[in-house]
Structure formats: C-alpha cells, structure tokens
User: Fold these one by one.
Assistant:
Number 1:
Amino acid sequence: MTNPWLAKLQPYPFEKLAQLKAGIVPPKDKSPIVLSIGEPQDPPPPLIAQAITERLGLLGRYPTTRGLPELRQAIALWLKRRFGLPEVDPERQVLPVAGTREALFSFAQAVVDAGETPIVLMPNPFYQIYEGAALLAGAEPYYLNATASTGFLPDFDAVPEAVWRRCRLLYVCSPANPTGRVIALPTLKRLIEKAHRFDFVIAADECYSEIYLGDPPPSLLQAAAEFGDREFSRCVVFHSLSKRSSAPGLRSGFVAGDAAILERYSLYRTYHGCALPLPTQYASIAAWGDEAHVEAGRQSYRERLLAAAEILSAVFEVEVPEAAFYFWLKTPIDDREFARRLFATQNVTVLPGSFLARTADGLNPGYGYVRIAWVQPLPVSQEAAARIAEFARTL
C-alpha cells in the first residue's frame, strides 16, 4: 500500500532532461557547459565557512525547530533593512527552514484542508515543488498561464470567482522562475485583498529577490505593510541563502509573515524533523548580516546577463530579465528538439521550457522556450552564448 496521491506526481524536469539526452554523445572537443540548473557556481563568501568552522563543536547538540533567537533576530533585521518594514517580530513572525525547497513543499501540508476539495493556485511555468505540494496536500493544482501576452506574469484578474472561492493557497514567485519578471506592489496588494475576501493564504517565493538589474524587487510583506497590517495577515514569504549568498549546499532559508500561520507551521515542523544544525545557523547569521558579498554577486550576474545578451542578440530577440539569472529564450524550433540538438552539437545543456509547465486552457506556456541559467563564470557564460548562437545559425 502507498499513498495514492504519490501516483499523481510527475517526473522532475531534470529527470525528463536526462531522458532527452540519453544516448547522445556530444563532441569531445567542446567542454561541457551546464546551464540547465539554477545552481550558483560562484564560491560562497568566506564568512560562511569561517562561521561553520568556528562552531563545529556544536554538532554534538540537538538544534531546536525554531532556531536560535540570534538567527531569528538577524533575519528580522534583514527584512526591515531590505524592505523598509516597520517592524518584524523575531519571536512570532520568523521561522528558519532547511532551505526554501522543503519549506515551500511542506507548507501546503500545514495550511490546506483536504476535506474541502481545495484548489492551490500557482504560476505556469513554475517551480515544480508547488505542484507536488498541492497534490500531496490533497488539493487540485490550478495553473495560471504566464505568456508573452500577459507580460510573462499570471493574469490574476482572469481567474474565475468560483476558483477563488475554492482556493486555499496561492503560490506566487517574484522574481519569477523562469522568466525573471517581478510582480509590482499594486498587484501584490490586490492579491492580499483577494486573500481576505476569499479566505486563502499567499505563499510568496522570493528566493531571487537579491539578484536584479534595476530597482530592488518588492516583497509581499511590503504590500501588507502599506495597508498598515503589521501582522502580515494571510501573507507568508520564503527566502533563502542559496541564490543570495551562493550557498545552495548550506540548505538555509526562512519563512516570515503571519504569526498565526507560522505558529501552526512551526508545530508541523516540530514533527517534521528538519531543524538547522547549529553551525549552519551561525553561518546564516553571518550571511544575513553582510551585504558586501551580495552586491558583488549581483554585479557578477549583471555582467553575465548583459554579455550573453550582446552575443545572442545577433541571432535571437533577447530580453534581459528584470531579476533572477535566467533567460527565457524563444526557440525557432520545438524546445525539446532545440535542447537535444544543442547538447548533441555544442555540449551545452539548457532546459526545455515545456518541462517547466503544464497544459492549461489548451496550451503549454513553456512550449517553444528554453530556460538558460547564467550561473557559470563570465568567460564560460560568454563561450556558452557563442556556442548557442553558432548552433542557432544552423537552424
């Protein structure tokens, strides 16, 4: 016997990519360049390793689910500095998590009542964790297509009222993976109004908020604060050190927002057993307290994105995203065929956009696009862009 909801899970995009590449032998005279996964390749700042090394002796102690008070305080102060929030209570409104992937997934289990035939809304294309979270919470996923005609953001105003009435959880991702688009404050405020009207929770994945080219992206908590709501009612945000501090292996992030929701989620996590090791917590305190390494990383991504755009614009219509480190590149042929042949001829791996989306309202909004993660160092990124352009000229 197994949980029947497990049968509803689809293969992860990288499993599909491995199958797509199976049996292909790329040219040996071209070094492999992997641009398919959003894993930062820059080294994490030395302060992280230093903090871990200094606290290795604490591995002999159990950590608590709620984390060190010093860590929650460091996170609360960062939120206030970064988003101009009036106040964040580190005791009630902040909860450290073992990376936002596990938090975005487990959060649905704590807030969705499967007995209500609930709906969980999510962008399409999307981070597949949202879908898996909805399914294993006993909910029906509802996909909000983000296409060129909607500015590559979900058209929330087009959602029928009957769907809003069944909605119990809305996932938003801003800056968006994979398009890099940012949801503006007025839209976030309208979503909060809907959450109060229709009785649902908003889970805002803001993991890419510190990688941007122009103005800093806003937070859902900012939108709540503009209403004068210091309780951040029905609003929960997810942040991580994976992208911000180039530390995906640290598995450290946090959830912040509505204290009543976090109280229930904290209870869930007490049983879930995913407390951060104490050396990790001290490393996280150091990382959240330093902005110099973040600005350096932001500048590095800016250079890669602009350099890649300059090379690729000779062949493609390239639009540099507002934030994050992806190109959502329109392909002249089927996106899966584009990715397969690019790997076969240039030894460059990108991710077909159709692997990141589901067919909804008669279309798969990822079809005809590839996601390119500019996470490699500048010279490697420039080489990859040149190879992609060379390949495109053969089509």
Number 2:
Amino acid sequence: MLSKKTKYGIKALTFIARQKRGIKVQIATISEKENISHKFLESILLTLRKSGILGAQKGKGGGYYLIKEASEIKMTDVIRTLEGPIAMVPCVSLNFYEKCNDCPNEDTCAVHKLMLQVRDNTLNVLKNTSLADLV
C-alpha cells in the first residue's frame, strides 16, 4: 500500500509541475490547495530536495521548484525516494535485495515467482510514467 507520505509527495510534485517554468511555490500554497498538513509537507519536500528532484530558494519570492523537466522525473525515482523499495518482498528487490529467512530456495518458491511478476509489471508502469504524464 502506498504511504500517505508518497501520495502527498506525488500530489505536491504535480502541483509544482503545473506552475509556469521558473515559478517557485511556497509550502503554504501547496498545503492549502492540496489539503496536506504543512508540517508533514515540509518534511516530504525536504526529502525530495535532498534527492535532487526539487530545488528550493529561501526568502521573499522563494519556494520550491523542479530541478529537471517534469518529463525527466520518473515515478520510479519518486517512489524509491519517498517509499523505499518498490518490490513487495525483499527477495525480489533490485536495489534492496535480501534473502528471505523462511525460504530455503528462491527458485522453487511460489511467492518469489509471483512477486517477481508483480515487481516487473509495477516497475514497467512506474519507469514509463513521468511527472509530466500525471500533469
């Protein structure tokens, strides 16, 4: 299940992406328009800034803005930044692989086989969807 952090992060990014290029958006504006707690949104946007998805400018006329074009921001990057692994179980994760303690053989494990398909299909959708596609 998608966390509220990730859901709100995507909502905030789409809000920012809808603005004219170069326009900086304040947290208060996003919070009000997207009905997201200001404090929670602040934490989310900071995470996205640290990951290189957003930039920020302090002071008068400041706010958050996209560092790249919306078409270059893939949902795989957003989900991994805010949510962590995309795979539902660690034994099929591409970036966060861990062997399952209760599984003697991944090659014969029915759960592993199913979750590989889920991971691959999910990745296909996310890597082929950009922020621009959502706007």
Number 3:
Amino acid sequence: MSHKYVAFDIETAKILPENISDLNSHRPLGISCAAIWCTDKSEAELFYSETSNGSPAPKMSEQDLTSLIKCLQQKVASGYTIITHNGLGFDFDILAEESGNFSACRNLALQHVDMMFHFFCGKGFPISLNAAAEAIGLSKPANINGAVAPRLWKEKEYQEVLEYVAQDCRLTLDIAETSEQNERISWITQRGKQSYFKLPSGWLTVEQASELPLPDTSWMDNPWPRSKFTNWLE
C-alpha cells in the first residue's frame, strides 16, 4: 500500500422529506454522529455528543465537532491520508457549517482523497458507494441508508446508526485499497454491468483531481459542473 488511509463519514441529524431534490434547501442539517476508521485498525472510532444523563445527544455540539476536526488533523499529521466517498461535496461541507471552522475543513477537504470526486473529474458523472462496493462483492445494509439514519437516531436506535456509519467507513477503506491495488475502480452500472475507471497514478487528492482535464460530457443532457462539489470552498 502506498497510503495509510483513514476513512471518514458523518450522519446528519435532520429528518427530511422523502425523495427531496435539493438537500441544500433544508440546511442546516446538523450532525448526529461521525466515524473514522484507520487502515491499520480493527474497528472504527465513533463520535457523538452526550446529554447531561450520558445518552447520545440529538446532534453534535460545536465543541465536539471541533474535537473531531482536531482528531482528523492529528491523523493527517501522523501520516494518514483521509479518504471519503463524496466527502468534498457533503461531509466536509456540512462539518464546516456545523462546526463554524471553515478554514480547517477547507484545508482537510482539499488535501484528502474523495473517491467519488476523483471519479467524477475523470468521467463527468458520479457513482454511489454501493455501486463500487457491489463490484468487489460487498454491499451496504438494505434496511438503512443516509435518509433513514436521522429517524433512527431520533428513535434512539443509536447503536444501529453507529454501526451503519462505521460500516460506511469500512466499505470506503475496502474499495479504496482494492482499487489502488488493481489500479482501477470498478462499479456496477445502472444496466447491471460491471465497468471500471483506471487509476494509473493511484488515488488523487481533491486538489490534484481538480487539475484533471474536463471529460467529454457532450452525450449528457445536464452534466454537473465541478463547482457543484467545490462551491463551498470559495
């Protein structure tokens, strides 16, 4: 392995309407919990705030989010590379808003590897974590996803949500490491076929991926611009 990775993922706190088209119109979303999982560790580190009676709080406090940011900074300083799937366009954006620490989150976001953003910069469209997981024989749980997690957290199903956010980190690590070894990331297309995107130089950081030439998206009706993911950095 050329990198020592630490996967990072958050779960939001606000319960949203089903099938929403614009997540940003419902912000702020709050963060119920987060997880990090290091390449060389057997389990995730979990983060959430507590109420006065010691139970998990509805959402994380600014103080606890600041501690999470410091933990990520310490991991980077000790040689880890943060890796996410859509961390640029979601996790770090939300973390910056909720913590109030834009500068630190911006720096972490630019220097980390966002697998989805790297793929998007190369192909012009995104893929889901599950599409990449299925291509290597893995999958996310069928009974929970990012939309369901806020409701489960409110219903005090804390352990189920914590296990879910940890598993997303584990999936991210598995996909990152397998893809790096194979020099390509594979995914299952919407037609059910397996395809791949070459990674000749391994995974690129957000800053590096942003320098890739724009792909041909002339075949698409409404291609997304890269600014969809990077606007909050300005």
